[in-house]
Write a structure and sequence with these properties.
The complex is a heterodimer of chains A (about 110) and B (about 150).
Chain A: E1 2-3, E2 12-28, H1 35-43, E3 45-46, H2 48-71, E4 76-88, E5 91-105, H3 106-110
Parallel strand pairs in A: 1-4
Antiparallel strand pairs in A: 2-5, 4-5
Chain B: H1 2-39, E1 45-46, E2 60-71, H2 74-86, H3 91-114, E3 119-131, E4 134-145
Parallel strand pairs in B: 1-3
Antiparallel strand pairs in B: 2-4, 3-4
The chains are: A alpha+beta (about 110), B alpha+beta (about 150).
């Protein structure tokens, strides 16, 4: 599955427009009562555990979008976008969406 | 009376000084790291445009994503609390989120370079709150190559 956030895939032509696909996940933002995060809040800097948490969640949301596109018979997703929003106290929704398409190399599409 | 004085005044001031000092040290280190890595970028183009003008049409493309969760220190938080009374810009927070964005961008570039890309187009940024004192910054775009 090709993923791009441009409107077209370079070197390929869009043969079929499949439709809007999406994937999301809602995660609790906190890692629980861990002393590490409290200490980090004192001195600042990157919170690596949180970075990994959000990264994994985002990958999960992306995978759901890819699975939906594959089920619809697409081989690429264009105009991929990400949003993050707070939906409940302490929980965030990670959402990714895009347009699923079928692409073919430009020479083949011209035939 | 002594215990009250300790927890009410001495401890917060101690946390402020330690947190603020270590926080500033970390800021400077991060800034130095960012500058060093940005200098190594030479020739690699990152743009918010859909294509890079003056370059031939790319042949390969894939999505890249850089993420970081960055937190403020106790010193910054204390200043922010005071600022909340009078309003105005939180300069230290602006610099913090700015460094977060630069970090996220550099991570997206690392991912692109590992795929032997020559540039990133359609770069986009998103920022969201994780906790009261930490924000996540992401940078994503399409890595292009020949």
């Amino acid at each position: 599955m090709i993923l791009v956030n441009t409107e077209t895939v370079p070197g390929q032509e869009i043969v079929t427009l499949v439709g809007l696909v999406q994937g999301n996940t809602i995660r609790a933002k906190h890692l629980g009562r861990d002393i590490g995060a409290s200490l980090k809040n004192l001195v600042g800097g990157e919170l690596r555990a949180y970075t990994e948490l959000m990264s994994e969640a985002r990958q999960e949301a992306m995978q759901r979008m890819i699975d939906q596109a594959a089920a619809l018979g697409a081989n690429a997703i264009v105009n991929v976008r990400f949003t993050t929003s707070q939906v409940a106290n302490g929980a965030a929704e990670l959402y990714s969406y895009g347009t699923a398409v079928v692409v073919a190399p430009v020479a083949a599409a011209a035939e | 009376m002594g215990i009250d004085l300790f927890f009410g005044l001495v401890l917060p001031v101690l946390l402020l000084v330690v947190g603020g000092a270590v926080g500033r040290l970390k800021d400077h280190r991060h800034e130095a790291s960012l500058r060093r890595r940005e200098a190594e970028l030479a020739g690699f183009v990152v743009t918010a445009m859909p294509r890079i003008p003056g370059r031939p049409e790319p042949v390969r493309a894939s999505l890249v994503l850089g993420e970081v969760v960055i937190a403020s220190d106790y010193g910054k938080q204390s200043v922010a609390r005071l600022r909340n009374l009078v309003g105005g810009e939180l300069r230290s927070y602006r610099r913090l989120v700015d460094r977060g964005r630069r970090e996220a961008l550099l991570r997206a570039v690392d991912q692109a370079r590992s795929r032997r890309a020559s540039g990133i187009v359609n770069a986009r940024f998103e920022t969201s709150m994780i906790t009261a004192n930490a924000a996540e910054v992401i940078c994503y775009g399409t890595a292009i190559g020949d």
